[in-house]
Amino acid sequence: MGIFASKGNIDFKIFPNQRSPTLNQRNRNEIIVFLMAIILGVCLRIYFQDLPNFAPVAALALFAGYFFSRAYIAISVPFLVMAISDIWIGSYHPIMMAIVYTMLALPVALRGILRRWFQLQRVGQASSVRPALALVTCGIGASVLFFLTTNLAHWVFFPAMYERSWLGIVECYLAAIPFFKYTLAGDLFFAITFFGGFAVWPQFFQAKLPEEQDWIAT
Question: Which of 64, 107, 126, 192 could serve as 77's disulfide partner, Cβ 3.0–4.6 Å?
Answer without folding.
Answer: 64
